[in-house]
Structure formats: C-alpha cells, structure tokens
Specification:
By secondary structure, the protein is of the alpha/beta class. It has 2 domains: 2-151 and 288-335, Medium-chain alcohol dehydrogenases, catalytic domain (Quinone Oxidoreductase, Chain A, domain 1); 153-283, Rossmann fold, CATH 3.40.50. It has 11 helices and 17 strands. It has helices at 43-50, 99-102, 143-146, 152-162, 180-190, 204-210, 221-225, 244-249, 271-275, 289-302, 316-324; strands spanning 2-8, 18-24, 31-41, 66-73, 85-88, 91-93, 113-114, 126-130, 135-136, 170-174, 193-198, 214-217, 231-236, 251-259, 280-283, 308-312, 331-335. Strands 3, 4, 5, 8, 9, 16 and 17 form a 7-stranded mixed beta sheet that branches. It has a 6-stranded parallel beta sheet with strand order 12-11-10-13-14-15. Helix 9 links the parallel strand 14 and strand 15 (280-283). Helix 4 crosses helix 5. The mean pLDDT is 97.
Length: 336
C-alpha cells in the first residue's frame, strides 16, 4: 500500500483544488511507483476540471506532465529500476497486445489508460504507471523544464514525423502559446523556414527569438494572402474556429494542414480547396513511447525546452488562476 497526498477538484463546479489523500493498492507486476518532483499544468487539465470533454470523474487529481523518480518496480517491469528519473505524460498504460501496440503505435491503443481519465494524476507526491509509458529521461535533461515536453512537446513533435518534414520545407505554426512556441523551437532546429501565425503583433520579437523566420498577423487578410501557396505543412495548435479557407490557401500543392488543437466546433473545409492542389487535412494526439524518447534525446542534443514559470504545488490554485487569466509564459510547472 502507498498513501498518496494530492490536490483534487472534489466535484464539478468546485472553485478550487483542495488537499486529498488516497491509497494505491498492491503494485502490479508490470507497474512502477514514482515519487513526483515536478508536474506541468496544461490546458488539458483545465478542460478535464471543467468536464469540457464529458469524461471527467470526480474527485479529479489533475496533472499529466510528470517528472519523478522510480521508488518501486513490479516483478515483470522492463528496463527500469529504483532511482531512475522518469516521465509520465497523457498516457499511463496501454494493452500491449492489440494491433496498434504490436506495431509500435501504443498511443493509438483503444484500450489505453489516460493519466487523468478514470484515475488520479500528478498533482500529488506519488503516482503509478505501466512500465511502457514510464519514459526514462536522458542524461543531462533539465528536470524542471522536462514535464511539458511529455504532453505539449510530443504533441507538436509527432506531426513533424508524420509529415516527414525535411530541412528544406516551409512550415507554418498557428498559435504561439504553450504548444506553438515548442513547435517553433523544434522546427528551427530541424532546419526549416518557420512561419508563425499570431494574433498578437506585440509578441513579434519574442516569437522571432523562439525560432520563427517570419511572423504573420493572423488577423490581417493581406498578410495571410502574402504567404499563399507557399507552405508544405501548417500545424494548428489553437482550439478555436479559424478562417480555414485562408489557411488552406497558404499551402503549397500537396501541402498538409495538421491540427493538434482540440477544436470543438466542426471544421468547415471547402472541398475544392483540397482537390485542386492535392492537399490534405489531418490531426494527431501525442506520440508513442519510442517517439517520446526520441524527442527527449533531440531536446537534450539541441537544448530545446519550453519557456516555463514554476510554482510550489501548494500554490496550485494560484498557478491555475495565472493560466486562466492568460498570463502564463508559456508553460506552468508545479514543484513538489
């Protein structure tokens, strides 16, 4: 038995997270217990707290960008031992026998377990996960800044791999926030020409420093027209309705518009904007454990980290208010 001290939203509509304790049962043969040192605060945590996706169970302990240290391993755990520094992101288990798992696409497992869906997450001092989703951290990684890479980072890294992006490509990124600023950093080190679409002209210099080659004011139709037909890939990180036709017009022939932002309204895509140029629209969640490890190695090699602000775990409600008010620059991390 392991007693966990956490912060939870006790019921839907509650204004604040409050202290909450629970016990983990006997450790499974393929499970790992982790002492948490840091946990990121993500917009997905906010969506789950509000039950925006209709799958929240209360009390809810949010937190799915977990960095910690292994303190116990089951008898059948592979490649991990006590004392290892590890991370756990949106997924905490998958079935390990379906076609998707067996082909290396564990993140697409229909029977996978999400870290804060039907279980308690990382706003706590301990957590538990299956060994396959307990990601060993590469030597030299910045532990305090690594948590957001396990959700936001892999979310924007996966499209780069899916689209087979080349260093000679021109890639656009819509929305330079918690996800978008990491996409800029990845693409810059990839060698691409990087076009940032932002509705905040006052952030232009900061966006260029993050790795963008050019910044387009997404509220200016003339600036949008100036990039027409030029981009091989656009990654959308926003969760709001956009002028889809204008962005599709920005794609070069055979270009791809890829969304990782959870847009809740249906996307109105004009068919002829795709047909004439053999363009595609796609989307993706996080990535597999193997791809997550590859991303972390890439980050250490090129010194890529999110820009973070940190709060002690005891100030979790202040951190949430900071994010809700749009003040976060650009990811929030809680220290245990």
């Amino acid at each position: 038995m392991l007693n966990v001290n956490a912060f939870a939203l006790k019921e839907k509509g509650a204004e604040k997270l409050t202290p909450f304790s629970y016990e983990l049962g006997a450790l499974g043969s393929e499970e790992v217990d982790i002492k948490i040192h840091y946990c990121g605060l993500c917009h997905s945590d906010m969506s789950m707290m509000e039950d925006a996706w209709g799958m929240t169970q209360y009390p809810l302990v949010p937190g799915h960008e977990i960095i910690g240290e292994v303190i116990a391993v089951g008898t059948q755990v592979k490649n991990l031992k006590k004392g290892d520094y590890v991370g756990v992101g949106w997924k905490s288990a998958s079935c390990m026998h379906c076609q998707q798992c067996m082909s290396g696409h564990h993140h697409l497992c229909r029977n996978g377990e999400s870290t804060i869906v039907g279980r308690h997450g990382g706003f706590a001092d301990h957590t538990r996960a299956h060994w396959s989703w307990t990601i060993p951290l590469p030597k030299g990684i910045n532990l305090e800044k690594a948590g957001p890479l396990l959700c936001g980072g892999i979310t924007v890294f996966n499209p780069i791999m899916l689209a087979n992006v080349k260093a000679t490509d021109r890639v656009g990124v819509i929305g330079i926030g918690g996800l978008g600023h990491m996409a800029l950093k990845f693409l810059n080190k990839w060698g691409c020409e990087v076009i940032a679409f932002s509705s905040s002209p006052d952030k232009k210099e900061a966006i260029l420093e993050m790795g963008a080659t050019k910044v387009i004011n997404s509220r200016d139709p003339e600036e949008l027209k100036s990039i027409a037909g030029q981009l091989d890939l656009i990654i959308n990180t926003t969760n709001v309705k956009l002028d889809w036709k204008s962005y599709l017009s920005s794609l070069a022939p055979q270009g791809r518009f890829h969304t990782v932002g959870a847009v809740l309204e249906p996307m109105e895509i004009p068919a002829f904007s795709l047909i004439g140029g053999e363009k595609t629209v796609s989307g993706s969640p996080i990535g597999s454990p193997a791809l997550t490890r590859k991303m972390l190695e890439f980050c250490v090699r090129h010194d890529i980290y999110p820009i973070v602000e940190s709060f002690p775990m005891e100030e979790v409600n202040e951190a949430i208010a900071h994010l809700e008010e749009g003040k976060a620059r650009y990811r929030v991390v809680l220290r245990v």
